[in-house]
């Protein structure tokens, strides 16, 4: 049975100054207990400051003064939630790495169960929400529909899994070699490992602060999940085009038949709606194709996933 000598915990942060002290204290308490029980021998907390505009970095530096287990990765700007996780995993050097949000709505007490599965040979352990009772009706409705849609188009995802997971060192190394810019990590890891364990939990309310995910960021993340892992939408566009062409030919045949039988052409006052419908559909498909081309454009430019301003540790500060 394999053991974890050092566990890395990656915590992405963006304007989370209100919760950082409590987050660090709670995580340290849980991980100290794992050390005391012999589950792990050592650990590190990697806080990624994702271009925060409040006092997040100063708050982390203050915590660093009294905590030698802490490592701060400061990014030059906001590279998005997925970018900050990628940055933290790039600097994780433990035998396994756990990613968890700074607000600790995903309970760190479940890390012990993840370690148990790691010892049993699993390189990937996913944290799964048992329910969405804490969400509003609309959020719950759209989340459930979104996961079902991803399944329908062939994207491999696990329902109610966010970004609370444990990955082995070998899996982290494989992940760090991926160069794609439009990231949907909860699906990317399943492209690397098909054998995984699940840990179930109930999500807790925030103790302080507010969520940094707004409608725009959720929509962008959702769109990345659809377009980065499936070309089914393009295939559906082709299918709808074939169907419309078929009905157009039927309509032309019907008009020709009426002309022969009655010598009277039907009125065309109703042609406006079909024209608008077809025009709208064509614009929608052009927009969809544009989304794919836009992502290709970003990939071809190969801009960095993140840029480090500075790394802070208890021993030294590296630029």
Description:
By secondary structure, this protein is an alpha/beta fold. It has two domains: 4-214 and 304-318, Spore Coat Polysaccharide Biosynthesis Protein SpsA, Chain A (Alpha-Beta Complex), CATH 3.90.550.10; 232-301. It is 48% helix and 18% strand. Strands 7-5-6-4-1-2-3-8-9 form a nine-stranded mixed sheet, with helices on both faces. The longest helix has 31 residues, at 232-262. The chain is elongated and about 90 Å long.
Question: In summary, what is this structure?
Answer:
With 319 residues, this protein is an alpha/beta fold. It has two domains: 4-214 and 304-318, Spore Coat Polysaccharide Biosynthesis Protein SpsA, Chain A (Alpha-Beta Complex); 232-301.
What's the helix and strand layout?
Layout: E1 4-13, H1 20-37, E2 40-49, H2 56-64, E3 70-75, H3 80-90, E4 96-99, H4 111-119, E5 124-129, H5 137-152, E6 161-168, H6 169-176, H7 185-192, E7 197-201, H8 215-227, H9 232-262, H10 272-301, E8 308-313, E9 317-318
The overall pLDDT, averaged over residues, is 81
Query: Structural class of the secondary structure composition?
Result: alpha/beta
Gap from first CA to last CA: 39 Å
Largest beta sheet: strand ordering = 7-5-6-4-1-2-3-8-9
> Which descriptor suits the 3D outline?
elongated
Number of domains: 2
Strand content: 15-25%
Distinctive features:
elongated, alpha/beta, 319 residues, Spore Coat Polysaccharide Biosynthesis Protein SpsA, Chain A, 48% helix, 9-stranded mixed sheet, 10 helices, 18% strand
